[in-house]
Amino acid sequence: MIPFMFLAAEEGEHIAENAFWLPHDIKEVFWGTLAFLIVMGLLWKFAKKPGSDFFAKRTATIAESLDAAAAARAEAEAERDRIKAALADSDSEAARIVEEARRSADALRGDIATRAERDVTSVRDRAEVDMIATRSQTEAELAGELSRLALGAAERVVDEELDDSGQQRLIDTYINNIGGRN
Amino acid sequence: MADTRTTAYAGSLIAIAAAEGALDSVTEEFYALGAAVEADDQLRATLSDPKLPVERRAQVVEDLLEGKASPTTVALASMVVLNGRGAAIPEISREVGRIVADEQDSVLAEARSAVALTDEQINRLAEALSTKLGRTVTVRNVVDPSVVGGVVTQIGDEVIDGTVRTRLNQLREAF
After folding, report:
1. Residue B155 bridge partners (DSSP)
2. What is the DSSP letter of B108?
3. What is the ipTM of this complex?
4. Is the overall model pTM greater than 0.90, yes or no?
5. Residue A158: which of B127, B131, B149 has the nearest Cβ?
6. What is d(CA B163, CA B152) in angstroms, rounded to the nearest whole number?
C-alpha cells in the first residue's frame, strides 16, 4: 500500500502538473480497486480471526505478565515486610539475649563474689581456729616440757639433798607440824 | 573393812601370838611383812601363783623372814601361805594391827616413810596424833621408798600427807 501511496503521490505531482488526479486509464483504477477489495476481503476472511486471536493472546499474556509482576511485587513487598519484621524481631531478640546474658553475668558475678567472700571467711575462720589450737597445743606442750624440766630438776635436787639427815629433818618437821596443829 | 576370812585369820594369829607371849613382836613383824608384800609386786605374784606349790611359796616367806623375825612370826606367816592365803598377808597384817589396837583401846595409824622411823620418832608421832585425835594412837611404820621423803599417815579414812612425792605431784599439777 505504501508503494501505492508513493505512486499516488507521484501521480499527485503529475496531477498537480496536469490538474487530474486519476490515472488516465480508468480500467487500471477499476482493476486496482477490485484487486484491493479482493485482497482486503481475503484478509478479512482469513486473517481477522488469527489476528484477533493473536492480539487477544498477546493481551492476555501481557495481562498475565502484569498480574504476575504485580503478584511478584506483592510477594516481594510481603517478603520485604517479613524480613523487616524478622530483622526487628531479631534486633529485639538480640537485645533480650544480651540483656539476659548481662543479668546472668551480673548474677554469676554476684554469686562468685559471695562464694569467694564466704570461702575467704571460712578459710580465715579455720585458720584462726587452727592457729588458736596450735597455740594452745604449743603452750600445753611448752608447759608440759617446763613441768618435766622443773620436776626433773626438783627430783635431782631432792635426790641430792635427801640424805639420811635430810630424811630425818623431813620426818621431824612432819611430826612437829602435827604436834603444832593441836 | 576386812572380810570375814581375813578377820578370822587375824584373830587366829593374835590368839596364837598371845598364847606364845609374843603379841607385840608378832604384831609388829607381821605388819612389816604385810607392808613388804604390798610393796613388792613380784613377791605378791609369787605368793599367789597357783602353779607354784604352796610349800615352795611358804619357803619363800621363810627365807624372807629368816633372821629378821621371831620363830613365831615365821611359823604363823608360813601357816598363812600354806593355806593358800599368801597374797592376803597385807590385809591380814593390817587387820591384826587394827584388832590389837582396838584391844588396847587405841586406834591404828599407819605411817609410811622412805626410811624407817626411829622408836623416838614413832613415839612422838603417836603422842602428837593422840593429842590431835583425843584417844590413844598406835603407830605402825611402813618403809615405802616411793614416798621419796617425809611421812604419810593414814588413820582410818583420814590421811595426813607430808611426803616429798605428794609435793612433787602438786608441782606437776601446778604446771
Report:
1. B158
2. E
3. 0.77
4. no
5. B149
6. 6
